Amino acid sequence: MKKSYLAAAAILGAAVFAGQAHAVKIDLGEGKSFNMGFRAKIHGTYMGKRDDNDKADLALSVPNSRIYAKGSISKIFKWGWQGDFAGSIKDNDGDTIGFGVFKIVDAFIMLDFAKEAKVYAGFIKLPFELHSGIQSGWSFIMPTGPNYGLANQPFTNPAADGERAAGSGSRAAQLGVWGKVADGMFKYYLYLVDARDEDSTNEAKTGYGVRVEFAPTMAGYKGHPGYVLKETYLGKQNTLTVGLAYFTEKTGGNNNKSLGIDALWEQNFGAVTPNINVGYVKHENFRGVDGRDRSGWIVQGQLLFNQDTILGKPAIGVRWAQSNKDDDAPVTFEKSSVIGVTGQLYVKGVGNRIALSIDRVKDDNQSAPNKDSWTDVTLAFWYNF
Length: 385
Description:
This is Short chain amide porin. The protein is mainly beta and about 375 residues long. The chain is built from 2 helices and 17 strands. Strands 2-3-4-5-6-7-8-9-10-11-12-13-14-15-16-17 form a 16-stranded antiparallel β-barrel.
């Protein structure tokens, strides 16, 4: 036993290297492994004027600064967790007074019995619509994300307040099973979302969800390979998949019903890899609020040039997204939309990139002196070490 620990320590000392998906990667044999890494996003956004009294200004932000680890105890028993340093400290009035709070944003255990059935439990991404949190945030076609500029944020985890992980709204406390059948032609997720309903009938009850994906494998395409999806696989596989998701959760006398539909096509033609993905979501009584209905569309795509430059592979991306009216909300939301374009250099994989994006937002919620449209320019640097 001591020898195995010494061997592991020796491997650990030699396994830290740059340019890989994990800063530390250890294979101990017999199904035992340990991976650890660091990743962050750094954005500088030139924000257009929001009202007549405003001035365009530069906003610097660190949307994510994370450390993560995952591994396996055996061929069946697997685990993972991730923490974020980019949180903020707020006073009793809600004002930010400091930064650097470390939060665990997900932690889970997965029992990998077979490719057809994997049981999981913990705080983990909710398997809803492709653009609503089940996708890796490091695979965004547009670095600013699917919801950027949309007033009511329709592409969102629909689980009720309190059931989502602090610091990462795409995660929720879940117990579920997922797997692939028919040689990967179909993939499914079935899950329950925990709820705080011990003391009050007005609190959210247990949520129920299902997601099904179809990929025409007979035509040589593949579906999303893992639990977490991606908006792009950078041509590493020819992907064509259609997903259908449904989630429901009762809060008091209101029943949240959320529907999601999405599709992704990406094909490597040698010199270039085009990508097109679309999504639609519709929420009724969103997060348990009576009458808070919202819906949204997104269409986006990318053309990746499979030629390495000194800073990686270049790509051009575009996105159009729209959120529709939401009458019963703290602030009534009218229709809003955004058109965006981006130029990117993928230095190594989706997690290491440099991007320059332009987003043109049209927001019908605004009235004088607020402007109903503005343009933001974002320079983004991401790394995954």
